[in-house]
Design goal:
- By secondary structure, the protein is of the alpha/beta class.
- It has one domain: Ribonuclease Z/Hydroxyacylglutathione hydrolase-like (Metallo-beta-lactamase, Chain A, 4-Layer Sandwich).
- It contains 10 helices and 14 strands.
């Protein structure tokens, strides 16, 4: 009986995994690179090990640092009044993020505010654990609250201390981040922007939320995505970041930044993360994929 039950569970798990996996069509070619829904997801997520393995923590620009894994982004904004953490990723990654903060010479306990990019487990599952360890104020976009409340690792309630809306700001120690509602991937997907000063110059930083379409594109979702694609293109941008390192070519840029072997060193030449020309490269990819998927679904419905 047990063996039959085990086999049934295996088949059920396989069916669920198959249902969640994206189709490997349509394909689009953007700036000379060809993509499918499956290839984009694979590029973003990598292997299970990639999702949980520490990527060398490093300074991006000014008071902004990368502290995530090889494929799941997490950022630390350091201020004189405490620090801001953006994206806790999976709960199992919280110790990895904690180590990265320590490796950079900062204290995890100094995190005062926890922000999120969007309400999926690979970006915000660890919020409860971070809250337990640091007592940080957890900020959430109103449209993502229902989905966040459903994320309960180990049965823990998802903490939410402040609910924000499109255009609201979060400030600490002289750094201000502005929340831009860019729905589609989730209803509350949030693109954050900030102005940082580095080397006597101001730079516009954009923390892009995912613009990746998934599943059935309903009229509501289509309206959300089209609004979001248009909006992000209006945001002033010198430094483009994202919820997955692959969306902003993190690993190649880091290799240039750390060429002298020091992850905290300032770039001796031009900072590769200052890349205004490619700020919306990922937007181009995802909008092209959205349109191709929409056309394919509309044709299939006829």
């Amino acid at each position: 009986m047990k063996s039959i039950l085990s086999i049934a569970l295996v088949f059920a798990a396989a069916a669920i995994a198959a249902a969640q996996a994206p189709n490997d069509h349509p394909s689009v070619t953007v700036h000379g690179q060809t993509y499918t829904p499956a290839s984009i997801l694979s590029r973003n997520m990598g292997t299970d090990a990639d999702q949980t393995t520490q990527f060398p923590p490093h300074k991006i620009i000014a008071n902004l640092y990368y502290i995530g894994t090889k494929t799941l982004s997490s950022f630390l904004i350091v201020t004189p009044q405490g620090n801001i953490l953006m994206d806790s990723t999976y709960e199992r990654n919280v110790p990895v993020i904690q180590k990265s903060v320590s490796d950079l010479g900062f204290k995890f306990s100094d995190i005062k505010i926890l922000l999120g990019n969007h309400a999926h487990g690979d970006h915000q599952e660890g919020d409860a654990m971070v809250k337990q360890i640091t007592g940080a104020q957890v900020v959430a976009m109103a449209e993502d609250v229902p989905q966040l409340q459903a994320i309960k690792p180990g049965g823990k309630d998802h903490p939410i201390d402040r609910i924000i809306h499109d255009g609201d700001t979060v400030s600490l120690g002289g750094t201000t981040l502005t929340a831009h509602l860019t729905p589609g991937h989730t209803h509350g997907c949030t693109t954050w922007t900030a102005v940082v000063r580095d080397g006597g110059k101001d730079y516009n930083v954009v923390f892009h939320c995912s613009l990746r379409p998934t599943g059935r594109i309903t009229p509501q979702i289509a309206d959300e995505f089209m609004r979001s694609y248009a909006l992000v293109r209006t945001l002033p941008c010198d430094v483009s970041l994202g919820d997955h390192g692959a969306t902003y070519n993190m690993q190649a840029k880091y290799a240039k930044l750390a060429a002298d072997g020091s992850p905290r060193a300032e770039s001796r030449g031009a900072n590769p993360f200052i890349d205004k020309a490619n700020c919306n490269l990922e937007t181009d990819v995802e909008e092209a994929m959205f349109k191709a998927m929409q056309q394919e679904q509309q044709a299939a419905a006829k």
